[in-house]
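Sequence only, no structure available. Ideas?
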Amino acid sequence: QAQLVESGGGLVQAGGSLRLSCAASGRTFTNYHVGWFRQAPGKEREFVAAISWTKSIIYYADSVKGRFTISRDNAENTVYLQMNSLKPEDTAVYYCATPAVPMLTSARSYYTDSHEYAYWGRGTQVTVSS
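Reply:
I predicted one. Tokens follow.
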């Protein structure tokens, strides 16, 4: 059964760093873009970052631009989210996701809209203390 598995979350002080990983099990990321989203308690799930299969297209939410970096290792079938200068407002469960079919487009909405994604991991908790 195809699965996406996130790891790397934890508790960190403000200003610290974490590196999240998203690994595909039972399926491949080949030709798929991958997105990271997060959901804080009582809030809607929001877009964080996304990267195309070729790595040539990358989008970030304004709230994380300059602090977070998304990358991928296609040989390892893994996508990463390097999070630096973490703030308490970054506290959330972080999810990775892929669409149902490969989307050969650079249109931002296909990368940033959670409704464009079909497969989701279970999430990893990130807690940033002040």
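The chain has a mean pLDDT of 94.
Hope that gets you unstuck.
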